[in-house]
Amino acid sequence: MKPGRRVGSVATGLVWFLALATAGAVAPAGAAAAAPAPSSPLGARIVRAWPAAEEAPYKEGPHGFPLPNDATEGGEVPGGGGKVRVYDVPRGRPAVAAELRKLLKLAGWKITGDEVSPKGTVRLKCEKKGVLIAASIAGTDAASSIILTLP
Fold this sequence. Notes:
By secondary structure, this protein is an alpha+beta fold. It is about 25% helix and about 30% strand. It has 2 helices and 8 strands. A hairpin with a 5-residue loop joins strand 1 (about 60) and strand 2. The longest helix is centred in the first third of the chain and has 21 residues, at about 5-25. The chain is globular.
């Protein structure tokens, strides 16, 4: 067997796999269609691909805590013992606080405390299935940070 032929067949298989995946005929392992899936001309079942990140209303943080999709992890707060984490959001504090309240409700979290400090920091106490997390939204009208104090 020629070495080039084997590489060619692997490359050809990869091209076919990518073509089928792009067309929606291939799904991740364990994925199942919610409704009867249509068939392609080749007879393969077409299942919906997993949702894109922009389709999800939020991303999950520690303990499943919902975070805005544009939040980026800023790391742990020094001296917090690993229980205080910061997430930066490139939007103003009022908009982020309003969105976080909606996301918490959507994700099944209960807000047990909601107050605003004299300097404008929003402090939320949140609970879900016995997990208590304190969230503070600090910053300005241009950018903000979500500070989570974990159990």
